[in-house]
Write a structure and sequence with these properties.
The protein has 238 residues and is an alpha/beta fold. The protein folds into two domains: 136 residues, Response regulator (Rossmann fold), CATH 3.40.50; 64 residues, Arc Repressor Mutant, subunit A, CATH 1.10.10. The protein is 48% helix and 13% strand. It is built from eleven helices and six strands. The chain has a six-stranded parallel beta sheet with strand order 2-1-3-4-5-6, with helices on both faces. α3 links the parallel β3 and β4. α4 packs across α6 and α8 crosses α9. The longest helix is centred in the last third of the chain and has 15 residues. The N terminus is likely disordered.
Amino acid sequence: MPYQRSDANAGLSREPVISVAVVDASTFFRAGLVHFLSADDTFSVVAHTATLRELHADTGALRPDVLLIGVEHAAAEVLRDLARLRTAARGTRVVALLAADDPLTVRRALTAGVQAAIPRHATPQELAGTIRGIVRGDDRIVLSVPQHTLVGLREQTPQLLTSREREIIGLVARGLRNSQIADRLVITESTVKRHLSNVYAKLDAACRTEAVRKAVEHGAIPAVVAAARPAGGYEAAG
């Protein structure tokens, strides 16, 4: 089904009520948000779904006051979907629940038109206050990020990748396999894959070769490192 409605507040007339749509890939996390919001007389959850695309077709008809969306990273595709949704439902205010608080993710979220960006681990009280704040404030942006992120936002060219992500893509550029990178850094191979997934998303890259090329273009790794390309190509070294 494209989306699910929550009828916890059906039949009850409480004013003022803020209608909320929830989008998050994690079923468990999404259910927790719906449970918390539905227990508060101030909010009415009108829809909840895993992706923006599933919600997009009905957002214009639903016209929620607020959209809560989980943002795992600065994936260009997700942010493009968000920008399209903001065009379809101009009155809807958006709260981004950030899994990562690096300057690039925050900057791209703000550029996509969110009115608030707060940590995914924000307290229920902080979340509720943020929702009420952006609904009541005509031109208010709520931003809850660490000091180092604010410093990065002030920079003209914020660091695209984290230090660990730069380290890993640098080793990819040297031709190391995921298992070899894991051994070198004393981490699990699944952790290497997770970091690489974040690198692909941030660089809008589809493969190791493209990720290495874009990492060099953005100055994340030196070109001399990428010059050590393995004979079989980066994909063969995956």
